[in-house]
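Input.
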Amino acid sequence: MFIYASMNTSRVMGLRDEMVRYLREREGEGGMSTSEWGQGKGLVFTAGNADTFTRVLTTLKLLNSSHLASPMPAEIFSFPREEPDAVTRGELERLGATLRVVEDAWRGEGRRKNYHIKASAIIRSSFREVLYLDSDNIPAGSLLPLELWEGRNGTEEEEATRPAGLWEAKAYKRLGAMFWPDYWRTHPINPIWAIIGVPCRDEWEMEAGTILIDKSKHLDALLLAEWMMSSERFEYWFNFSDGDKDIFRFAFLALRKRWGVPGRYVSVGALPRDTISGFCGHSMLQNDHLGKPLFVHANLLKQISSGVGKGFAWGRHRQLRTPPSSLSLQGRPLTPSHKLELEEPLTDDDVDCDMVADVGYDGFPVRGRERVKGHPQEARIRRRAVWEKGIRAGFKRGGMFALCIDIRFDDPRSHEETWGAKLSVASSSPNPSRLPLEALAANVDVSYTAAPDGFELKFWQDEVLEVVHWKDVPRLNGFEEAFFEVGGKVNGEGF
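Output.
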């Protein structure tokens, strides 16, 4: 908080000047030239401390297994003197991975977590298009580009390994980047807004365990993020971000760039049964551009020291429902077991960050309104944006499990806003008993609302969230078995 208190106009302008000078220097040195873009598509990881190389090895084994059948070139970056042992190196290389070192980086003294080579890894990789994954972020579906899979003339059995189509997602092709959401939002008093010259955005923070980016379009933003995360500077910039995760988002916003978002907000992967405190989430289940689960980021699971294993690791998740695309919700009975997806198949809605940020209760954003208005899935995008305003995440004790996480839905409207809505409805309602307006308003239900254009919305928990069992999800029903078959471990030490 001392950093926050010491921030003034001179300091803000000085930081902006440093950023501009650095980017101009890199441009003058040829750091943004086409020769720096790289070629092709590939996976990038960072590893080195504790068991992170072992976790990357598990991911590569899974991608090369018959379960996913999607081998891809990969590069693994580490700090100096943190290379794997000869046996692990040999296994990684046999699976098509290249090991590289960020020679000019060093770990922070006394820090258990050191994230700050992530931008360097993406920039220095040989790939033009990069899918970056944290070592504990496990794919649940094929990551192959569709062009490679379609050229196989696969059998009917191989249809199960059809790629997600992430590289071909509309928002990614249009913008050259896709970022995935975290559970939290950046506070309005964070000085970063002044530093990058952007009004506070009511949007999700970025969960940097998954990054899809085209360097030919965003090498400048990556270089700015690398500068912020350099060994000399990262401890300062991490005051504005929980580790590295939001540095990429801040770099994009500073350069007035935008990114695509997945088709559904992050889901909470959980144990198959309740603990004494109920639903116990331990993995971030990130979705693809359609809203289907694709990445199991086991960031809390690896901290559970015992009690989980094959048969009791995953089994269900809580997710945001896919909103219906019709303006009206009339005649749509909804029960807890009702699956909206059965009525409306998931589609690639080409959603970017501005379309779901800073939205009003009519679902229209401050920026990007023109992208939403008239969109083929306008109502679905608007409902999603409003529903996400009410998502709240929280940690809780999990009995024998130290920590669990879950999400809930709260009506995002303030008490004053809901009371104002009640009064508005009551003032135009029949009142044969001549009750005072306040008494009449007290019984008005405003959990169901309608905008002047006919857009209808429900602020009900069961309308917004649902628990899905993995046995009912094609990408997930065999995930746990395949994970353990290739040697996966759920208890770990590294970050």
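The chain has a mean pLDDT of 89.
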